[in-house]
From TrEMBL:
<feature type="domain" description="Terminase large subunit-like ATPase">
    <location>
        <begin position="73"/>
        <end position="233"/>
    </location>
</feature>
<dbReference type="Pfam" id="PF20441">
    <property type="entry name" value="TerL_nuclease"/>
</dbReference>
<protein>
    <submittedName>
        <fullName>Terminase large subunit domain-containing protein</fullName>
    </submittedName>
</protein>
<feature type="domain" description="Terminase large subunit-like endonuclease">
    <location>
        <begin position="269"/>
        <end position="562"/>
    </location>
</feature>
<dbReference type="InterPro" id="IPR046462">
    <property type="entry name" value="TerL_nuclease"/>
</dbReference>
<dbReference type="InterPro" id="IPR046461">
    <property type="entry name" value="TerL_ATPase"/>
</dbReference>
<dbReference type="Pfam" id="PF03354">
    <property type="entry name" value="TerL_ATPase"/>
</dbReference>
<dbReference type="InterPro" id="IPR027417">
    <property type="entry name" value="P-loop_NTPase"/>
</dbReference>
<dbReference type="InterPro" id="IPR005021">
    <property type="entry name" value="Terminase_largesu-like"/>
</dbReference>
Length: 587
């Protein structure tokens, strides 16, 4: 039967569907009879969180759930070929806002899977990132079993082990808290992963999930369901990887009929128009609106966060309205953040910048061992006069151990090639040479100097004010630059704090009107989103929005470079004014 027909899990018109409140499941159940059997079991399960009615029973999932839940259940269980037992769609993702009955849905699907499972002694598991989330899934599942006298005869709850056993098949549903970084076993055939966004913050989550899901490869009926809200930080790690993959499947970029996505998120145009702030559109990412969550409650919470301080609004939008955290959510964001993504040019490598520019400068911002060392090469483009920016950063493994919350984020940027995580292997021999030629600098200093040397050899550095440094903690870099012939007045200190005000305001203006382009790295989008404007009576400064984890060092390097471009520099190999080629000359 599997080879007798073809199907697609792409949903190219999802934007129109989600606005019209239509189903996001791209195709009908592949095997309708299997879908109906499972739906019958699912709809009969009672929700013990709700009070009993006149019939002395709790409302059932069939009575309280919206159609989108039934569509998902039918798609999952209707993908199994009844003749062969082989499941044709094996991976599913539900991305949905908080307060839409996510744990209830998870519990109902897995209890249903335990009921309809045919494999003797099968292992089913709900894998949660923490004990609290695990209990949120187990308690409704336990309640569904205990509330039904007939079901209680077949299924036995072992509460202290967070397990439910099927006395007929010997199958067992386990609810596992992955607070430790490893999950042993890998024998489960059916797995539901709750709150994937939290797994994205665990450095070893990818290996852990691979171990947990390994058993499915040997069982034809196996499937994995990811249920999650959006992250309270920019997506990272395994969450970002999976979300990107399911989006590509939904959008038809990847042809994978074995994967299906139901992603309640905003069409790009609605994000740009900030439609998520309009209560009339709250249903876009809250398909259970007026069932488990109300417009009035969301509107009231939004109003409170809008008048508050800090990251409350950002987190509310991410969790309750599924707005992916990026650049434009915080009220106190740097004013240029609104235009940053618009001015990305991903073809802008260092080599391309040097080829396109008539003059180039370098900005550097050095941090401590638990910070990034940021570098920015900026130049003035020939003929257009636009300012072009290329960024790179370095860090030591200290950051990953001291700032575990962002370890997976930094690892992602290292994979992109925009961040270098330096090696500790050679530290014992550093600096032990007998003379200057033998003396070896740390990896970050060596590689930063190598980049600056490349810019110098291009002939585009000006004779003065060519390399601008944050004066704090850059003594070793100054010494290393001297060895390649770069000293004052080419190497200069850039005043920080309010002294960067012209760059803060000026770069934002250039981005708005197209006078500046940048290399478009994910790392820089993150750094820009971490930059907070702090207003004085007559000044503007940039500070981190979160101390310790909100890294902005490469962005500060860009502001240092901007200060140098403000001086209208001329390359050392060109004595002409930069205005000769623009039709006028100031004398």
């Amino acid at each position: 039967m599997a080879g007798a027909f073809k199907w697609s899990t792409a949903c190219l018109d999802w934007r129109e569907r989600i606005v019209a409140r239509e189903s996001l499941v791209p195709c009908p159940p592949l095997f309708a009879e299997k879908a109906e059997d499972a739906l019958g079991a699912f709809k009969s399960l009672q929700v013990v969180d709700l009070p009993k009615g006149a019939n002395d029973r709790h409302p059932t999932l069939g009575e309280v759930c919206d159609e989108f839940v039934f569509d998902l259940v039918a798609a999952i269980f209707g993908a199994e070929d009844p003749e062969t037992g082989k499941r044709l769609i094996k991976e599913f993702m539900l991305l949905i806002s908080k307060k839409n009955g996510k744990s209830m849905i998870a519990a109902g699907i897995m209890v249903t899977a335990l009921i309809v499972n045919w494999r003797p002694n099968a292992i089913l598991q709900i894998l949660a990132p923490t004990l609290e989330v695990a209990n949120n899934s187990f308690e409704p599942a336990m309640g569904m079993v205990r509330a039904d006298p007939e079901l209680s005869i077949v299924l036995k709850v072992v509460e202290h082990q967070r397990q439910i056993k099927h006395l007929g098949t010997g199958a067992v549903l386990k609810v596992i808290a992955a607070d430790s970084d490893t999950v042993a076993g890998g024998k489960a055939s059916i797995t539901l992963i709750e709150e994937l966004w939290l797994f994205g913050k665990k450095p070893k989550a990818a290996a852990m999930l691979r171990e947990a899901l390994g058993g499915g490869s040997a069982r034809p009926e196996a499937f994995t369901l990811y249920i999650t809200t959006h992250s309270d930080e920019p997506p990272s790690g395994v969450f970002k990887t999976k979300l990107s993959y399911f989006r590509d499947v939904r959008d038809g970029v990847i042809d994978d009929p074995s994967a299906m996505a139901m992603l309640y998120e905003w069409p790009e145009k609605m994000l740009d128009d900030e439609a998520y702030l309009d209560p009339a559109f709250f249903y876009i990412t809250n398909p259970h609106i007026e069932r488990s969550v109300t417009v009035e409650w969301l509107q009231g919470e939004l109003r409170r966060e809008q008048v508050g301080e800090g990251e409350g609004l950002q987190i509310f939008l991410a969790k309750h309205l599924n707005v992916e955290i990026g650049l434009r959510l915080r009220r106190d964001r740097w004013r240029g953040a609104d235009y940053w993504e618009l001015r990305a040019d991903t073809t802008l490598t260092l080599a391309a910048l040097l080829e396109r520019c008539e003059v180039a400068v370098v900005g550097v911002d050095g941090g401590g061992l638990d910070d990034l060392y940021g570098l920015c090469v900026a130049g003035r483009e020939r003929s257009t006069g636009r300012w072009l920016y290329w960024f790179k950063a370095w860090c030591w493994p200290d950051v990953l151990s001291r700032r575990k919350e962002i370890a997976t984020i930094l690892t992602d940027y290292a994979k992109d090639g925009d961040l270098v995580i330096c090696s500790d292997e050679m530290l014992e021999t550093l600096g032990l040479g007998e003379d200057d030629e033998d003396y070896e600098q740390p990896q970050d200093i060596r590689e930063i100097v190598a980049v600056i040397k490349t810019v110098k050899e291009s002939g585009l550095l000006p004779k003065e004010n060519a390399v601008g440094l944050d004066p704090q903690g850059v003594g070793d870099l100054v010494d290393a630059l001297a060895k390649i012939g770069l000293e004052a007045p080419q190497v200069v200190a850039i005043g920080q704090g309010f002294r960067l005000m012209s760059a803060i305001v000026g770069l934002a203006r250039k981005l708005k009107f197209g006078g500046a382009l940048h290399c478009g790295s994910r790392m820089m989008a993150w750094c820009v989103s971490n930059a907070k404007e702090e207003l004085g009576r007559q000044t503007v400064m940039i500070v981190k929005n979160v101390q310790g984890t909100g890294k902005i060092d490469p962005f500060m390097a860009g502001l240092n470079a901007t200060k140098l471009l403000e001086m209208n520099p001329v390359a050392a190999n060109d004595n002409r004014s930069p205005y000769h080629d623009r039709g006028f000359l100031i004398v």
